[in-house]
């Protein structure tokens, strides 16, 4: 059917040309074309005033024309620039969403954590006084490590929290037994009894489970926003192939050459051109949708019963309760430690005039509104709750924006044709690639493999775009991290075997050297590199994917 249509168009064009040469003594004016061409910022020097013979044209139909070879070349370049701008503008809102929401979430979370630390410092200063001030670095280090973990630092949350409770036990044990002298070796022995004696009750176990789940979700979520931003920014900088530029010029500016600068392309014609030019971007869609779904899962986790507020806001109360539990069980704990580690030597200094028990008997209690502590900056517990409420609204907003971005890349060609006001809705009064009239070919489906039958753009379906494949890999790795985070697993530390890490990293280094030696650019060399090398358990699959893409390119 398509071949028949092309034949009819060719015969029609020939008949028009013969009539023009035989019946018309005067060529048509190019005044409208000159005006439109000049409006694009081009010089009118050497632009014909009347139609000329078009044998010199390489893209547009070679009938009578208002275009010179120089004009066609300039319009060719203009088509490429306008297409790049259209893709960037069409994706601007979505890309800006990832940038702004990443910034907001990051700011809210760090402020929440900072206010939680200030709240603990203020409450513990009033509750425990000088004893807290003398040992405050234990608590400061806890928040420092939590911040370092969230911002991407190499911190094992479980080990860090275990270390916090061990240090707190050592300090508490010395304070509760100040009549004895303890060496470093003795205190190390004390810390070994942490799991066996459970001096703080079940609070460390519960808090560790809550903190790890909440912080893994928060860190992975903000990383996901960052990866989404980077992938979208890279894909929006589209690589325009020569065949695409040719098709764009034929669609957008060949009407100029035919003396009809105001004629817009037919809708289906536009769809075929855009689907051909954005075939590789459409292939990103399936992995992008899986990534968005995984982001939404983690967002639900941030809003659920184990959300950040449920962990951070009462952290001071839980730690204080743990201290009180240690105080209540101090006699039994000390006796068992002395039995296991030996009887310590007396320090020669008795307990202070004010007994340690008296200090700790000031059990932490809820503050009345009049007593509620306020930091120097004037930030109260109300501020902590206000920050969390703002952050909750931010998460809800992010979820809505994420849902809107589903199928973005496969819909992009049609969105450009529709929202860019490129097309003429009247199917009889539009440009069909040769003249004004109906466009008959069917619209091909989106995606690279479907372009084999695209009537407007010649697409080599055997050579996928390397940049797009890299972004697919980056999304695949991030999606896996998000799914693990939803289940409370931090994949950064799942592969604890140094040998396996070194083996995989050695393979990665070898892979990089091979690529450089063969002057290849495929593989995990952009966003995926950062993610893969920070996740040893995924690096091997990343390499296999890269090698597969190299083989595809070498065919």
Automatic annotation (TrEMBL):
It is a lipid-anchor; GPI-anchor. Pfam families: Glypican (PF01153). InterPro entries: Glypican (IPR001863), Glypican_CS (IPR019803). It is found in: Cell membrane. GO terms for cellular component: cell surface; extracellular region; plasma membrane; side of membrane; synapse. GO terms for biological process: cell migration; regulation of protein localization to membrane; regulation of signal transduction. Belongs to the glypican family. Cell surface proteoglycan. This is Glypican 6a. It comes from Oreochromis niloticus (Nile tilapia).
